Amino acid sequence: MNSCYFVVGECNETSDSSFLCLCHDGWTGIHCQSRIDNCNHTACENHGVCRSIVLNYTCECLGDSYSGRHCEITSTKIIIFQTISKSFSYIAIIALSIVVMFIVIMDILKYCFGIDPTRDDLERIRQEKRKSRVIQQLFYVHSTAVSPE
Fold this sequence. Notes:
Elements: E1 9-13, E2 19-23, E3 27-28, E4 34-35, E5 49-53, E6 56-60, E7 66-67, E8 73-74, H1 76-112, H2 119-129
Antiparallel strand pairs: 1-2, 3-4, 5-6, 7-8
C-alpha cells in the first residue's frame, strides 16, 4: 500500500509491510506530509512577514519604509523623521530643565537669602491699585431761569 502523498513524494516498498518515501524538495516526514518551514529560524526585522517558499524564504517588508533580505535597511525618510523627532525631544528636555532651574533659583534667592527679585515690581503694581481715590461731590444747583416768551 502506498502511504506517501502522491504529489510530494515517491514511495518505494521495502517489504510487504514497510515502505520508504522519498520526498520532493520542501517536504519532509515519514509520509512526506509536512512542508519544511524555512521561516522557523529566520527573523525578519521591522515587523516584516516571513514567507516560506520551496528551499528558501523571503521577508515581505510592510510599506516602503524598510527593504533588504530581512527588512533591515531603513529608508532615508524614516532616518530623517527619527533624527528630527530626537532633536525636538532634546530641545523639549532642555527647555523644561531651564524652567525648573529658574524656579529653583528664584526660590533659593527668596527663601534662603531673603532676596526677592520681584519685590519692586510687586510694590509698583500694588501702588497702582491703591491710587488715591478721587472723591466727587455733586452739588445740585437750582437755577431760576426765565423762560423766553
